[in-house]
Amino acid sequence: MSRWSIETLSAVCAALLLVALGWLAGVAWQELNFWEHVWLSVLLLTATGMAIWLMRKLRTRLACARQQLDASTMRYRDLAEAAQDGMWQTDADGMIVHVNQRLGDMLGLPLDQLLGHSMAEFHDDATLQRLCPLRQEAGQSCMGELRYMHADGSERWAMLSGRRLYDRLGSLTGALVLASDITEHKRAEQALSVAHAELENRVALRTAQLLDVNTQLSAEIAMRAQTEAALARSEERLQDIISMMPLSLFLKDADSHIVLMNQACEQQWGVHFQDIAEGRDRQHFPPHQNAGFHAADQEAFASRQVVIREELIWNALLQENRLVQTHKKPIFNADGQPQMLIAMAVDITESKRNEENLQRSLAQLRELSDHQQTIKEEERRRIALDIHDDLGQNLMVLRIDVSLLHTRTAAAHPRLHQHAQRVLDTIDATIRSVRTIINDLHPSTLELGLGPAAEWLIRQMEGRGSIRYRLHIASEAPNLGLDQRQTSAIFRVLQESLSNIVRHAQASEVEVALAQDQDAIVVRISDNGIGMQPGDDGKRAAFGLKSIRERVHALGGELRIDSQAGQGTALAIHLPQARPVAAPG
Asked: pLDDT band at 585, cuts 50/70/90?
């Protein structure tokens, strides 16, 4: 009901009230007395004034109500325009009587094309039948989604919620509907649905792949379990092998601490592993040995290869230091940092002692051999002198006597003269043989020094064969600064070398060089023969070389041999020269 109908109804009621009061007053006026007429007139005037006052009061209230209604309507319109949702209001016949701008934006239509029209003109009837409050029965939900086409042809979605509107008398006056734009949400849902379907496909594919990988992983796990079991068995066997190894084996970490020892190592060091484990090895060994061990370990890590060294290790059981030869192999991790040392130790204490004893025995044998050679040379010299002094003189006297007999019997006794000549020839041959024996035993030129003796020897060798000899002496002293013992030894070495060349070298030229410097005597013998050859002759030649080497070593010298097949052989003897002792001042 409008505000104008309410005011009209109020005026009509006041007029009817006055008419009724007038009629009642007219009916009762004739039957009343004067004072009653007065009171009735006052009453009528009072009723008329009250009616007029009531009409004015009612008009004032109606004006206030109208102003409040207008303000409420403006607030409603402002709220509708400011709302984020679309809003429209229809009358009882479904015609749009009010719509906000948001709904026009959602539909893509201007508001003047919506007012006075039915929403069924813009949407399918089935959707509105399901969602429009005017077309729903009482108690049904007035909320749901609406899919519609925008003015630009795109598909949009909205969430509708509405209710019916009634007046004070309970009559249906229309409906109010709110529409929320859920287009982006629906598009996101569609995209999410597509993504979900794609994700499910991917999950299914990935699940299949994971099943395959899981199958492979199960097989690998089973294989790894078998491998670990085999590795455990292998480690057990390795531990058994390590424990039973006769060689000493131990492992060290990067800080040179013992982390593993086998039984042989425990016996070699005279200590159990549990007694020196966990860094207690530094307390077992002396400080200088620990420092040496650490330096050797760092050297092995720095060289990145096997390092072999001889080290002294304290044996607590024997209470002595044992000399061992250690072989240390460094191991590095994936980053190239030192990880551990694998080391083996061989006890060479006894072998070193045996070697020292052997060296002492060899030195004694060399001294004995040199002494024997010296005695032999002295004996040869003595025998040569005895033969020269006794046999030589006797042969010379005998030759003189036979020569006198040969001279005296030349005319008187021809046959005796001939016989004396034969005896004289025999005596001359004997004298030459004696001289040869004397020279073989001890050449008289040795008394003059090594140089003259070498010259005499080379002339003798030239007279025995077709080999050409050349002698070079780079010293003014005939004995080259050698004593009698050294001179005899070098002469015998030279004699043995030339004899080997004649017997085995098949050479045509031989060169002998004698030189003297400040510190040593150098003897070099070279030929252009076939070199050293295998076989029996080579064995005999090798034996002669051994004899020469022992003679040189006995003198404190050094022998070097350079032999190539088809290019000859060269022997170089380097003999240190004894420096004269200064006389005390």
From this structure: very low
The SS3 assignment for 122 reads: coil
Kindly give, in sequence order, each residue whose CB lies less than 8 Å from that of residue 492, ignoring residues fewer than 6 positions away.
Answer: 373, 377, 551
Sheet of strand 248-253, all strands in order from the earlier edge strand to the far edge = 258-261, 248-253, 338-347, 320-332, 307-315
Contact between 285 and 313 under an 8 Å Cβ cutoff? The reply is yes
**pLDDT over 70 at 127, yes or no:** no
Alpha helices in 245-286 (DSSP H): 263-269, 273-276, 281-284
Cβ distance 568 to 529 under 8 Å? yes
DSSP 65-89: HHHHHHHHHHHHHHHHHH-SSEEEE
pLDDT above 80 for 181: yes
Element (H, E) at 22: helix 3-29
Neighbours of 58 (CB within 10 A): 16
The vertex-271 CA angle with 267 and 274, nearest 5°, equals 120
Question: Which fold does the domain 84-181 belong to in CATH?
Answer: Beta-Lactamase (3.30.450)
Give tens-digit pLDDT for 441-471. Answer: 777 777 788 888 888 888 888 888 888 888 8
* Helix 484-500, helix 450-464: angle, nearest 10: 20
The answer regarding whether domain 450-580 maps to CATH 3.30.70.100 reads: no
Q: What is the CATH number of domain 245-347?
A: 3.30.450.20
Phi, psi of 546 (to 5 degrees): -60, -40
| Residue corresponding to tokens 């005895």 | 386
- pLDDT band at 4; cut points 50, 70, 90: very low
Q: With H, G, I as helix, E, B as strand and everything else as coil, classify residue 507.
A: coil
pLDDT band at 341 (very low <50, low <70, confident <90, very high): confident
Distance of CA 209 to the CA centre of its chain: 33
Say what the pLDDT of residue 3 is: 44
Residue from 484, 502, 487, 486 nearest 541 by CA = 502
- Rounded to whole angstroms, how far apart are CA atoms 181 and 130? 18
**331 phi, psi to nearest 5 deg:** -120, 135
Could you tell me if 489 and 373 are in contact, meaning their C-beta atoms sit under 8 angstroms apart? yes
Indicate the residue type of 403: S
